[in-house]
Structure formats: C-alpha cells, structure tokens
C-alpha cells in the first residue's frame, strides 16, 4: 500500500510551527506495516490543496490530510475538497449536538455561528466522530483510493487515528511486511562504524537495507527488511543485527528502538542506581529529557536548577570562595554542584552543568558556548569542558546530550 | 519568487525524526520575504528523488534540498542528482583537505575511504564550503531556476544557509514584500475571538490575510500583507493589528511574534519580579521551557525537580503529614511545594506541579492524567486541578503549559 501525508496550514510554511504530526502518523502507521512514501506541506490556498490532492491520487492508495478544518475563515480545506470530490455538504446532527455540548460545558453562552459549519460534512464521506474536539474527521473512498481528512490539533488527530483509522486499516492491510531492527551506539562516528562493519554490510541480502542515523554523539543503525514472510524477515534481520552488535560491542547502548534516555533508565533501573541533576545553563532540560519517558521515577528522585549563584551556594552548598575565585562556569564549581546534589538526593550518580548558553554573557576568557560538565559516580568524578557556538538553544541541547554521554561513559567504566 | 523545500531521508518517513529543518528554513527565508509554498519529504529512493526534483522544477524558482549527503551507502542523493543534472562528479581539493583536516583533529588515524567521496561535487555546481562539517553544499542553476543541496544535520544546514545562501538570495530577491503582524492571546478560544473581531476581519483589504493559530490555551493571530509598497504594508497591517489588540485587550499577552515564555520573561523582567518552580510530574519541563529563551536569568533563579516524596519533604519542606494524609498529588501538597520553593528562592511568584503523568501509577480516585497545579503570588495562592488523558508526554506538555497560564492569570490579577 502506497501511503502519503498532506499537511495543510500557512503556519507550517512560515516556519511558525514544526510539523510533528507527520512523524507521529508515520511511526504509528509503521506499526501496521504501512510505509509513508511522501509527506507534503502546503498552505491554506485552494489551488495548492487541489493540486496536492490530484498528485496524491495519481500515486498513492491511502492519503491522510491534516489541518485546515477549523471554524475560522482562513481554513478553506473543506470547501476545496467539496469541489474536488464534487460532493455537497450535509449537516450531521450527531456532530452538531456534540459541538453544542462542548460549548455548553465551557459555559460561554451562545455558540458562534462559525461553529455550526463544523457539523457540515461531505455527503460522500464517512464521518469520523471526534469525541475530543469540535472538528469531525472524514473518510472518503474514490476510485479504489482512500482519503482521510483530520484536524491538525495533535491530540485530536491522534485520537481519530487510534479510534477510527487504525481499526479500518488493520482490516484492509496487504500481505507485504516490513521488519525493522535497531542498534543504538554512542561514541563513534558513522563512517568509522561503517568501516568496522563493512564486510557485514556487503553481505546483506537485497531485501535488507542498513541506514545510519547520526545525532550528537550517537548513531542509530536501522536494518529494514521487506518481504512477505514475516518470520523469515524477523530471523534474518535479527541475525544480522546480532552480528553487527557483536562487532560494535563496546559502542552499543541499546539493541532496540529506544531513545538514549530510555536506555539510561533501563540500565540504571536494572542496576538499582539513581541519578540526580544539578543544572545551571541547561536550565532543567536534562531532567525534562529524562522524565519524558516512563519509568524515570525508578532512577530519578531529584533535580536542582540552580540558575543563580545564590542558589548554587544555598541549595547545593557550593563554596562562596569557589564561585569568587573560579567563577560559576568552572570545573571547580560543577564538581561541587554535582557533589552537592549527590549528597542531597542520595543518588549514586550526579550530573552538573554550568555554562554560558548565550546569546550574551560571554567574556574573552569564557566566550558564549563555554560549558563545564561534571559527573560524580560511585568512585570517581569526571569533568569535561566544551566550547559550543553562539546559538542558545543548540548550546543547551548539546550540553544536555553531552552530559548524558559523560554519565553513560562513567557508568560503563564503573560497571565493568 | 516561488520557493520550496525537499527533505530526503527514510528516517523522516518512518517518523523516527521530526523534520525541524523545514520550519527553520521557512522562518529564516521569511526574513528575506521569500515564502515557501511546498515542503515535501521523501525517502532515500532514487526514483522518488528524481520525481520530486522534476516536480519542483515545474513549479518553483528556488528549491532547497536537505539530507542524503552523508558518506554511507544509504545516502543516494548525490548520485541521483548527478544523473538528474547530467553532470559528472569532480573531486574538490579544498573540500578534501578540509575533510582530512577534520579527521586529523579527531585523531582516529586513517580517514575511511567513504569520506573521500564527500569531496566529490557536481561539475555544474558552485560549491558551498562547509566549515562545520564534512559534506559540502552545492548550488546549481538550471533553466533560470536555482537548486541548493545541503546536508541534513541541522547545525551544518543552518551554517550554510546563513553563510552562503542568504547573501546570494538577498542579491536576487524580487520586489514583492510580505509583512506580518502578530498578536498572542491567552484565555479565549479561536471561534470566540473570531466573533469579537468579526467586523474588523470583514473590513480587511484583500491584500491582508488573518490567520488564527491555536495552541493549548493560547491563540496567535497573524495578519499577513502582500504587496510592493513596504511602508504601506507595514502601516496598514499595524493599524489593523492595533484595532484588534484594542478590542481583545484583556486577552492580549504580546503584540509581537514571541512565544508565551518570552512574553512572561519580558513582563516579569520589566516588573522586576522573579519566578521559581517546584516540579514533580513536569520533571523540569517548565524550567526548561523558560530557560530556552534569552533573558531567562533576569526572572528565574531556582527550580527544584522534586520527583520523589523524600525530596518534596527534605528540600521543599513539604510536611510529612500532608503527604501521608492527602498524597503527593493533592492541592495541599502543591501549595506547600510552591510556598517551599518561594521561600528557598526568594521569588515573588512560585509555580508547583504534581500529578500522575502515566502511563502507570493511576488509582481509581486519582487516575492517570490527574494533575494539581499551584501558583503562589505576592498576595494570593491559586490552585487548579486538571484531568488529562493517558499519554505521558502530552500530559507533561499540557501541565507545563497550564502552569504558565495560571501564573500569567495571577500575575495580571495582582498587577492591576
């Protein structure tokens, strides 16, 4: 089945929002072995919407369209698709009752007229009832193709995908299966990894593809097999994954499709070890990155965001002399921060960051992008200085990532 | 100028990464009045790449292609474009020296053979030298159209855009100007806002478009004017923006294109007020969201991520009896957490969260998604209970957002 996604909304083409819906949909459909082949983002212009639908219907069996279904005038999708499918609107009473109900619950009095039109659906469509919002989804079948129209609000889109779309897809899916196997590595660049496994890569059968997905300090390897025999695909892919893992042993963090943070939660959790964070320049980002994932509470009790020097002293117990003599951005300070939060939390491992995230605050000696990181472990404390660049958000993101890499390395060293 | 973006990489179509490059490029080009009309994501398949290039050359003057330029075998973009433009490769000595230099610096010995090919560029292209990575960019002109090929690694792409692409574009840009004006509102849904300003919206001239961009608790209004007289566009748009702001006064958070967090930093900063956070279920996300933005240090000194109960007691001073009697997820606990971090930090405002983010940990009385938030202000402490759903990351994101909305409301109330 050839599937594609069309996202509609000026805000995407202006770069005001990042299209996270498409990645979610792609991943979600991947579970049903449906591969997305194209993702197109277009503006709220009638002609672009018509053109994109026409193109999609020439190459895809299944087309998911998100966005543009709101009640305000800038949302022109519905009128455009009414013309495209040559299908008039009918007002759906169940949807109308539901929309009225929502407005009643908010208790703001009379419902705006524009919301009545949200109950208007294409005559040719099956209505996908939206329990969690006002805009219903629509499912249109035309010339043995399926078009699905969903609101762009992420949780409404996800609700409709889970409740209505997936069950229908499971019923129609074809015999072609895709099997993925993942290996997450840390500490070696992609071309070096490729060299180490060149012979294995060369021996892959034509139906298994190997991809390298690098990300600050990490490379994810993905083996993807396509075919009809699910068992064979799994066995073959897992065999190759095992050979690669064995070869790259010292760099392997996880043998499944999980994030670095999840791998840390898993490993520390199994070893009954806790981690604490004392963050200055990363401002809570390391804590936030870790607690995004379930099971975080098994390894994490406490984070202190000590943004100001007086908090570094009063809460973390950093010595005033240390701050005066070496400054907040120094090896000495991050070591005391790490040991401070280790003491407060009782955690075996503690990570501390202090740096100049920018865009201002730099000096000749410590320019913007200077970051010190310390990790206090069971026996040892390690530190590292980084010199990043001028972009605040990138500096924070890379510092948070490097801090976890340092933590991982010390953990591996102390676990041998 | 019609511009479009093509992003290449299986990882995008599998939903393994979110394409943030496109939003960045769109926003960045917007500064030069260049509007992106299409964003297409395709996989690393030769036929899809050729097809996308062909389509783009039929409708756009300027095409930016990112990704697929890495040294490993899964990256087929270069070979495909060599065929597409019927242009052979030439090895660029300057690029080769640079790539070798990078490997020398890493100090891992001999450079892998695959990296030599990174110095191979299309004969018909102008080379965009990449100071910060190994894959050079390429600029190809063909039939009065421009094609630009950039690596997919975000900071390399950004470097090339800033250093090479923008200067060239500024030199070629046309006379058409686009002017945007933004109003950020909190506390009223988009259809209610639309009703309140219906007469103003109806009176907009044809060259000004109004868009509503809703996001949990917030709606951003964007007026976009297109024309040739930059002064006229600015004056007209700003006049309408002013009329709308005046009408919606009580809901307006900012009259510029900034995030809610930036508006908070600006307002609290100007009022010389500090904010502190005591986070449980949000796990540092509120601190992280705020400190993402420059100037955060003017309003923020201290955040405590008190994930475990013993940290709530020992660090924040929450009463053991409170935890025993009402539980960690309770109004009483979040109030004590907020007051605790207010005392520790000396901040005028303190925000506390405690809830069950999920996916496990719920009970009949307090199901997954139950979240208590407290804001302690100068005179008053307010609390609110939320019942979100089953998705951990969405629960965290919404809790963090609602916490700042509560903070904002109390601030507005106490500032009158």
Automatic annotation (TrEMBL), chains A, B:
The lineage of its organism: Bacteria, Pseudomonadati, Bacteroidota, Sphingobacteriia, Sphingobacteriales. Gene3D superfamilies: 3.30.70.2860, CinA-like, MoaB/Mog-like domain. It comes from Sphingobacterium pedocola. Residues 4-172 form the MoaB/Mog domain. Belongs to the CinA family. This is CinA-like protein. NCBIfam families: cinA_nterm (TIGR00200), molyb_syn (TIGR00177), PncC_domain (TIGR00199), PRK00549.1 (NF001813).
